Amino acid sequence: MERNSSAVIICLSDAEQLWVLDSVPGKVSTDNSDGEVEKVLKTLQSLPSSIPSRSWLVNHMVELGFSKSLSEWIGTNIKKSGELETWAFNLDGVIQMFGSYRDTSYWSLLEHPPKGMEIGLVVAENSDRWEPDVLHRIESLAARESDESQGAFSLHVLPHSGHWVHVDNPKGLLDIVAPRIASISA
């Protein structure tokens, strides 16, 4: 899938804030991943389109070796459809978005945030996704002086969390983003 980064910036032009959760800003090589996300997506693809129940899904995912907390979070993504449960999202669309994320670099957006926009990047303390040179580049961007001709960029480290930040430390994530979101002018 080819991606036009200027289209993404146009879509974001009215946004006051953008939060990026433990996502590397450059193109992501499969060499720099433990394959966990791919394993989750492949597993979800292998499941029947109708799930017997939320508890069945959670137990099945745990039996396949996924953590209880991740399996429970996955279980929150199904909805009742008649007697069965189905995905509350388009799984093929999620897979396409993940592929697009892997193939797209958004360094230029972090280096030059649109005027009036605040970009917050949350890096999980225990994430395995970050190479030292990438972290150094991000820390340098966060440390630079603000420039009134463009937006702002900030870096936040989420303690006690791996890549699944909303699962591993939801309270810590809320503590980081809630005050900033509350500051948005109405």
From TrEMBL:
The GO molecular function terms of this record are: hydrolase activity
> Which UniProt keyword terms apply here?
Hydrolase
Family affiliation:
Belongs to the peptidase S33 family.
Q: Entry's PANTHER family? A: 2-SUCCINYL-6-HYDROXY-2,4-CYCLOHEXADIENE-1-CARBOXYLATE SYNTHASE, AB HYDROLASE-1 DOMAIN-CONTAINING PROTEIN
Mind telling me what this protein is named?
Uncharacterized protein
